[in-house]
C-alpha cells in the first residue's frame, strides 16, 4: 500500500471527523454554583461574560441560614442584596434558569438589548422557605426557567421584595446560541479544498 496515499487518507478522515463535529454542535449551557467564592463576596463581574448587580454570596454555616434557605448544591447561594438581582449578558442568552428559595413572590423578567421586555415568569408560591414557614405544598429551591422564542436575552431582572433580602439563587444556568455552521455547499467546498491541499502536501512526504 502506498504510504503517501495512506497518510492523506488519515488526514482526510481527521478532517471529516472535525467537520462532522462542527455540524453536530449545539447551543451551549454553562452553570454557575457560586461555591468558589468566600462568604459575603459582592458578585459583579467575576464570571466572564456576566455582570451582576445587587448580588452577594452567602455561605452555609457563616452568613447563610441553611436550615431555612438551603443551597441547591454545595455551600453557597446568591442573595438579592438591596434590590432585584440584575444579570447582564455579554453574549445574549437563549434561556436562563436557576433554583430559588424566597420569602416574597418572585418574578424573572427577560429583556433584549433595546430594553424591550421579552418574557416573564413567576414563582409558584409567595414563600417556599424550608423551615416550615413556607406556603403549604411549597418546597425550597424551586426551579424557574425563562426563554424568549425568536429573541435573545441581553438582561435578566430577578425581583421579589423591592428592597431585596428576600430570596436566594443557586445553580444558575445560561444557554447561549449555537455557533453559525456552514451551509452544505460550503462544507463541500471545504472538503474539496482540504483534499487538494493534502494531496499536494503528500508529494513532499517520504514514501
Please explain how this structure is put together.
This protein is an alpha+beta fold and 207 residues long. The protein has one domain (28-176): Jelly Rolls (Sandwich). The chain is built from two helices and eleven strands; from the N terminus they run H-E-E-E-E-E-E-E-E-E-E-E-H. The protein has helices spanning 3-23, 184-202; strands at 28-32, 50-53, 55-59, 76-80, 85-93, 95-102, 107-111, 117-122, 142-147, 153-159, 167-176. Strands 1, 3, 4, 6, 9 and 11 form a six-stranded antiparallel sheet that branches. Strand 7 (107-111) and strand 8 (117-122) form a beta hairpin. Helix 1 (3-23) runs antiparallel to helix 2 (184-202). The radius of gyration is 24 Å and the shape is globular. Residues 1-8, 14-25 and 201-206 have low confidence and may be disordered.
Q: Helicity level, as a percent range?
A: 10-25%
Rounded mean pLDDT is 84
Major sheet: 6 strands, antiparallel
H/E series: HEEEEEEEEEEEH
Number of extended strands: 11
| SS strand fraction | 25-35%
Question: In terms of quaternary structure, what is this?
Answer: single chain
Number of helices: 2
CATH class: Mainly Beta
Tell me the count of domains.
1
What does the overall shape look like? globular
CATH architecture: Sandwich
CATH topology: Jelly Rolls
Give the termini distance in whole angstroms: 10 Å
Runs with pLDDT <50, length 5+?
1-8, 14-25, 201-206
Helix-strand makeup class: alpha+beta
Radius of gyration: 24 Å
Amino acid at each position: 500500500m502506498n504510504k503517501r496515499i495512506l497518510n492523506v487518507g488519515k488526514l482526510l478522515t481527521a478532517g471529516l471527523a472535525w467537520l462532522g463535529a462542527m455540524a453536530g454542535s449545539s447551543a451551549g449551557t454553562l452553570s454557575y454554583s457560586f461555591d468558589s467564592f468566600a462568604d459575603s463576596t459582592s458578585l459583579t463581574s467575576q464570571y466572564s461574560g456576566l455582570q451582576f448587580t445587587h448580588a452577594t454570596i452567602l455561605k452555609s454555616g457563616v452568613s447563610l441560614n441553611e436550615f431555612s434557605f438551603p443551597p441547591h448544591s454545595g455551600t453557597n447561594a446568591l442573595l438579592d442584596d438591596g434590590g432585584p438581582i440584575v444579570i447582564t449578558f455579554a453574549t445574549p442568552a437563549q434561556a436562563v434558569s436557576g433554583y430559588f428559595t424566597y420569602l416574597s413572590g418572585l418574578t424573572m423578567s427577560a429583556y433584549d438589548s433595546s430594553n424591550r421586555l421579552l418574557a416573564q415568569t413567576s414563582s409558584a408560591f409567595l414563600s417556599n422557605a424550608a423551615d416550615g414557614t413556607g406556603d403549604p405544598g411549597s418546597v425550597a429551591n424551586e426551579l424557574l426557567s425563562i426563554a424568549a422564542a425568536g429573541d435573545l436575552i441581553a438582561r435578566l431582572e430577578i425581583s421579589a421584595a423591592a428592597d431585596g433580602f428576600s430570596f436566594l439563587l443557586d445553580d444558575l444556568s445560561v444557554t447561549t446560541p449555537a455557533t453559525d455552521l456552514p451551509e452544505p455547499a460550503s462544507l463541500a467546498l471545504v472538503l474539496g479544498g482540504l483534499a487538494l491541499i493534502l494531496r499536494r502536501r503528500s508529494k513532499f512526504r517520504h514514501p
